[in-house]
Design goal:
GO terms for molecular function: GTP binding; GTPase activity. It contains eleven helices and six strands. The protein is α/β, with parallel strands linked by helices and about 290 residues long. The protein has two domains: about 160 residues, Rossmann fold; about 70 residues, Conserved Hypothetical Protein Ylqf, Chain: A, domain 2. It has a six-stranded mixed beta sheet, sandwiched between helices. It is elongated.
């Protein structure tokens, strides 16, 4: 596969969001971090640990309906080994979210007991929802609230300001705008974020990105690639040729019989992001010392 150019995207409002997050930590009891179940490692903002240090934490592996369920369970086991409770969910449909509030209360069990002893049993639980752009924070809040309280759109950078949402049962959610980090030290991290739509397409060469995605799918998920696009035997095929082949199979031709590779690229990325190619997880949890 051809080398990926470094992908960097850090709009000015994200620096403001980091400051806002730090200022708001004193207002909440727990931090809920949403990750993309297809790329749990790459979708973890490395600054979140530092920014939320000292606060009770839990992880929601969202978009589990588009990820490999077996690998998601491995990730849940991994986070548990790190002392971070987690659950797998699909925030759009609500699948898996029945365990959300019980998990929150389990994480805060000691704090809830202290409140009860102080006569504060009815005090609302306040939580901060954090995650990278387009990971599903607004979908989670709207599903928990039972109504469309927060803006939901399938593109990064929609939520720009801090939003409080009150739920039944004495729960208050603080929705923060999505936060990326100033520099992706690992090229693969930037690439995976771009594959899933966490980075805006207008700062990326989408044809090159689609070629990279097809190359990875060809190497690791060929059966799914063939089932979707009927590409046949593509062993050893170059990434650019794969994109042309997909475009030709879909009849995306222009005058002279040339393939409209931009249209093919948009289709491949859209169909990967919507799960139409299949349930694909690009990252596995790190191996434990025993496994190594």
């Amino acid at each position: 596969m051809t080398e990926t150019p470094s992908i960097q995207w850090f709009p000015g409002h994200m620096a403001k969001t980091r400051r806002l997050m730090q200022q708001s930590l004193s207002l909440v009891d727990i931090v809920v971090e949403l990750l993309d179940a297809r790329i749990p490692a790459s979708s973890r903002n490395p600054e979140i640990d530092r920014l939320t240090k000292g606060k009770p934490r839990m992880v929601v592996l969202n978009k589990n309906d588009m990820a490999d369920g077996n690998i998601t369970r491995q990730w849940c086991t991994y986070f548990a080994s790190k002392g971070i409770p987690s659950l797998a969910a699909d925030c759009r449909s609500g699948n898996g979210l029945k365990a959300f509030l019980p998990t929150v209360k389990e994480v805060l069990s000691e704090e809830l007991l202290r409140w009860e002893k102080k006569g504060m049993a009815g005090r609302p639980i306040r939580m901060m929802i954090v995650g990278i752009p387009n990971v599903g924070k607004s979908s989670l809040i709207n599903r928990l609230a039972g109504s469309k309280r927060a803006k939901v759109e399938d593109r990064p950078g929609v939520t720009r300001g801090r939003q409080w949402v009150s739920l039944e049962g004495g729960i208050e959610l603080l929705d923060m705008p999505g936060v990326l980090w100033p520099k992706f030290d690992d090229r693969q991290v930037g690439e995976f974020l771009a594959f899933t739509g966490a980075v805006k397409d207008d700062v990326i060469d989408i044809e090159h990105l689609a070629m990279r995605l097809l190359g990875r799918l060809n190497n690791d998920f060929h059966d799914l690639l063939d089932a979707r696009y009927k590409v046949g035997d593509t062993q050893g095929m170059e990434d650019a040729d794969l994109l042309e082949l997909v475009g030709r199979k879909r009849g995306m031709l222009v005058s002279g019989g040339e393939v409209n590779t931009e249209r093919a690229a948009i289709t491949v990325l859209d169909e990967f992001r919507s799960g139409k190619i299949g349930r694909i997880t690009l990252e596995r949890p790190p191996k434990t010392e025993a496994e190594k």
